[in-house]
Amino acid sequence: MGLMLMLVLGAILTARDSVNCASQTQFLNELLDTYDVNESPHLREGRPTIINVQMFINSFGSLNAANMDFSIDVFLRQSWHDPRLVWPSVRERVAITSPEMLAKLWKPDTYFSNLKDGEIHQVPTPNVLFRIYKTGDVLYSMRTTLSLSCHMEFEEYPLDSQVCGVHVTSYANTDDLVKYQWLQDRPIDLPESLEIAQFDLLGVATSNTTYAYATGNFSGLLVYFNLRRQNGYHVLQTYVPTILIVSISWVSFWLDPNAVPGRITLGVTTLLTLTTLASGIRASLPPVSYVKAIDVWIGSCMIMVFSALVEFTIVNWLFNKKVIHRRQTFFKIPKSPSQPPDDAQASGDQVLTYAHQAQLIDRWSRLIFPAVFFIFNLAYWLCYLAAYM
Ligand SMILES: *[C@@H]1O[C@H](CO)[C@@H](O)[C@H](O)[C@H]1NC(C)=O
To answer: Which residues line ligand 1 (CB under 6 A)?
Structure first.
């Protein structure tokens, strides 16, 4: 008896489902006969259709400084109400998958005005969802990868922050037809484990805007990502090596003033190493005309190394310079014992060198050069870290 009842019930339910399916296709076909795809949903009521937008940031590519762009992979979700699609049904909603049917339904022509390149993923099937609720609400979601232009400032590079945005607007529907607004609840949805190469995401800001073009006024949306560059890489690859190079150039002050090959090699090698490092850094940046924080750093390090080389030139020159003083001069420097009591004495003159002064310069340089570099470091880090923090 019970089994019979279940069978009958099952048959009834199956029948109802098939009726629903039939009515779904029938309904959609009937609806699409009279549906005008070119007409925005609320045109007859004389008001714009409100498009609620939400973005789920699937992944955030790295910012490309050389091209001034960045890439994101987003689920762009748009929802609106279309009174023509109100549908008396037991089914809560229906998803439209057939491309022919999809083409017959009105959709906003949303685009990204700062887009450089982008695509809707097609593998294995187009990553598009079009869902109609029986209330006439529509959800249109798609997965796209966007490469967006972003104006970057490098004055504080590599201790910089960048603000990059996504500009959403409609291409053909003016603001009397379509109005965009961010979804009230979580307009930008970020996964908890969102990782951005080389950057930390400090914050996200959304706003509404209107673009006034020659073709009319267009409603638009903006979202800005506030990103701060991570510094581990640059500290390890730039700052620490250059500090070491500058320190190595000071070794010269401990060498003999006559050690020409040694001291010249030291100076020139450190200078060349710095140049190589600097060109490596330059390669990853656009050729901007202003001074960057890294330029200040590398420039100062080069001046330090260059000064050490100049110091050696002076020391070496002084050390070997022979001065002939007349006896009549008002001061007398005692002769060093190494100097032979020779013809100079005989002719009434003294042969002197500035060897002592040269050594004195070297001794003072051992102190002054590190001190100057330390003070420079203090000023540099205070100045740029204050802006960075
Ligand atoms: C666009 O907006 C401006 C200012 O809101 C207004 O003066 C102008 O008439 C609008 N243009 C069109 C074509 O609606």
So the answer is: 212, 216-217
